[in-house]
Amino acid sequence: MKNLLGSSIKDLENVALDYGQAAFRGRQIYSWIYNYRNKNKNIDQIEVLPLDFRKKLKDDGFKVSELIIKERNLAKDGTLKLLLSTNDNESIECVGIPTEKRLTACLSSQVGCPMDCKFCATGKEGLKRSLKASEILDQILFIENEMNRRVTNIVFMGMGEPLLNIDDLLLSIRSINNDFQISQRKITVSTVAVPKMISKLSAKSFQILGNCQFTLAISLHASNQKTRETIIPSAKNYEIKNIIEDCKRFVRETGRRVSFEYLMLSGVNDKLEHAYELSNLLKGFQCHVNLIQYNQIEEVEFQRTSIKNLQLFQSRLENNGIAVSIRKSRGLDKNAACGQLRQNAKNQ
């Protein structure tokens, strides 16, 4: 399968030349894919191309999309969640999160996830495979077409562990930046943290992207190693103190601050002693904490912390000099927790 999505203008010019066409035919394909973001993804419908060229591309297996929509869920707050089917009959999820001024696309990087975080629906069935860059990018097109507006921000917070698909992750970021014209500064890569991969991410970013301007977000969710291992089994392979040291190195190498995601779980990690512990862990370097209201799922017993606890926790961090904000959960009425839509579809 040869997917044209993710190809640069030079790549597409070369495709045209390989078929005995003028280079401008490649630029026409590029414009059709990225500028028009056409809902019709069939090469037959690139009507600016000669019919025989379109036929040859199609006969040789070229495509612009390998995904199809299986299910749409629109929440009361306007959040749209899509369940997409892949060419090999797997399912992935992506989410469009609108505000007045921006449309954020929450993208998946893998089918399933190997990390098995206890609060997350995605990891319940493990990892099936990693997504190709074209499959990652296609999620953006589906969100744009369904919501009839351009995506302005990208978060890799959907299904999968992005750092375990690092090459296709960075290739997709390069295309998001160069072809979709979305600044790296509007892209966030969220990771549970994998040993040795944070330093590899910065090094490979400079190799593939030429720089590293996106935001790295660590799904920390705990203030100490023991608690983290309880909710994230893979944490036993990566001490929390080592994660922080690797994050400090990332800041030095890239000049970009690191965000820490902290899911507030009632009675587990939401006490003031945890806030004090987290403050001591993070003080002294360029970072920001996002406190997140838990989006409950049926399969696990974790409960969302109270608003009062959330605000007290925030105040304790602020008083200890930590930059912190509360991130509101979206799409609560429509299975917005990662992996829920896929799991529900499998159970039907």
TrEMBL record:
GO cellular component, one term: cytoplasm
Entry's EC annotation: 2.1.1.192
Subcellular localization: Cytoplasm
Keywords, alphabetical: 4Fe-4S, Cytoplasm, Disulfide bond, Iron, Iron-sulfur, Metal-binding, Methyltransferase, rRNA processing, S-adenosyl-L-methionine, Transferase, tRNA processing
UniProt keyword annotation of Methyltransferase present: yes
Reaction equations catalysed: adenosine(2503) in 23S rRNA + 2 reduced [2Fe-2S]-[ferredoxin] + 2 S-adenosyl-L-methionine = 2-methyladenosine(2503) in 23S rRNA + 5'-deoxyadenosine + L-methionine + 2 oxidized [2Fe-2S]-[ferredoxin] + S-adenosyl-L-homocysteine; adenosine(37) in tRNA + 2 reduced [2Fe-2S]-[ferredoxin] + 2 S-adenosyl-L-methionine = 2-methyladenosine(37) in tRNA + 5'-deoxyadenosine + L-methionine + 2 oxidized [2Fe-2S]-[ferredoxin] + S-adenosyl-L-homocysteine
This protein's record includes keyword S-adenosyl-L-methionine: yes
Ligand binding (S-adenosyl-L-methionine): G160, E161, S190, S219, L220, H221, N295
One biological process term in Gene Ontology: rRNA base methylation
Cofactor requirements of the protein: [4Fe-4S] cluster
Cofactor note text: Binds 1 [4Fe-4S] cluster. The cluster is coordinated with 3 cysteines and an exchangeable S-adenosyl-L-methionine.
Main location: cytoplasm
Residues binding [4Fe-4S] cluster: C113, C117, C120
Record-level Gene Ontology MF annotations: 4 iron, 4 sulfur cluster binding; metal ion binding; rRNA (adenine(2503)-C2-)-methyltransferase activity; rRNA binding; tRNA (adenine(37)-C2)-methyltransferase activity; tRNA binding
Catalytic residues, chain numbering: E93, C338
Residue ranges of every copy of the Radical SAM core domain listed in the record: 99-333
Protein family: Belongs to the radical SAM superfamily. RlmN family.
Function: Specifically methylates position 2 of adenine 2503 in 23S rRNA and position 2 of adenine 37 in tRNAs.
Extra facts: Reaction proceeds by a ping-pong mechanism involving intermediate methylation of a conserved cysteine residue.
Protein's name in the database: Probable dual-specificity RNA methyltransferase RlmN
